[in-house]
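Quick one: structure tokens for this chain, please?
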Amino acid sequence: MPIVALALLMTSASALYNLTRTLGGSLAIAALGSLVVQRQIFHSERFGESITSFSMEATKRLEALQSAFQSRAGSDPTLAHQQALQALQLTILQQSTIAAFDDCFRVLAYVSAVAIVVVFAARPRRMAASGPALTAAAD
């Protein structure tokens, strides 16, 4: 009977461990997904702040895109301008997504570094060996 009780206790502990691991992984993935979205919005706003109608670089880029759409696709100037704006918006979205994943990678690196320190700090310390076995080995 005690062996059966021990087996039931072991399966319950294993189930609890698997539940905790799965739940922790799910929460971490949800938190990282939320962080990616928040940082993408942040970076998109920051990148968008530098693109105005008064910015020379933005104006040059927009004109280059517009002329490319007119020459390759044969679009009229109004449609080419809209396509150039969409292409510029897509570029901002791509760059902000890359920056958001970069931020998440940095957060994961910090969390991993802290976890490594905690693991090594929490390890049990070895006790100094003493007694007759140590003195017998020294002889």
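DSSP finds four helices and no strands in the chain.
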